[in-house]
Amino acid sequence: MTGLLDGKRLLITGVITEQSLGFAVAKLAQEQGAEVVLTGFGRLSLVNRIAARLPKPVPVLELDVTNDEHLDSLAERVREHVPTVDGVLHSIAYAPPSALGGGFLTAPWEDVATALQVSAFSLKSLAVACLPLMENGGGIVGMDFDAAQAWPVYDWMGASKATLESVTRYLARDLGPKGIRVNLVAAGPQRTMAAKSIPGFDQFETAWQERAPLGWSLTDSTPVAKAALLLMSDWFPATTGEVVHVDGGFHAIGVPVAES
Known about the structure:
With 260 residues, the chain is an alpha/beta fold. It has one domain (9-248): Rossmann fold, CATH 3.40.50. Helices cover 38% and strands 14% of the residues. The chain has helices at 21-31, 44-51, 68-72, 74-79, 109-130, 155-175, 193-196, 202-211, 222-232; strands at 9-12, 35-40, 60-62, 87-90, 138-144, 180-187, 243-246. It has a 7-stranded parallel sheet, with helices on both faces. Strand 4, helix 5 and strand 5 form a beta-alpha-beta unit. The longest helix is centred in the middle third of the chain and has 22 residues, at 109-130. The termini are far apart. The model has no long low-confidence stretch (mean pLDDT 93).
């Protein structure tokens, strides 16, 4: 039985723990036949330990998406392991504490700028760095949290996600002629390390469990991983600039669903 991604090579960012969305994507990608290269930032020893829990060994490269030297050398370093890539997962976001948890009106520009650069501008930075590896086209997928409305405590991260959605559309415009699709997966809340760092994030958990018509698991990231991999596969050849909601239907419902 063949896998969805047989023969594909994927570059996956954002793996820190087994709860990371990037880990779920990498694991399922391997199970579906893909060859995977991971990137990590900072705690590479931790990333290597987590990577060792994947079904197959993977190389781990250091990548700070705000570091021009890391970005400029990325394609060359990836080529030490695979000649090209067919898909890229952008699972990177960060906002300083002042920009979260109710600090929207008081966060200084320096902290807001950090949130915007790491969480949104970095999608462009990563895409450009990977262009030499994607001469045959492919799919770039980013992790989103629906930015169509304002959320409690999310503050400048919410604004960063809105910027991410706009960046995706412009990348879709400019990379489409190169055969590269750029899409986002707007996931429901997951108990990742990033989520745990946001004060009051449990408000999202409660709301999702009350309102998502399909229900929602806070710990099972398989549905999110499946969507990301489908968008990087050959099964979405004409979809770009899109935000695919994988949230149990929460985004479509105005009030909690009454049980029948």
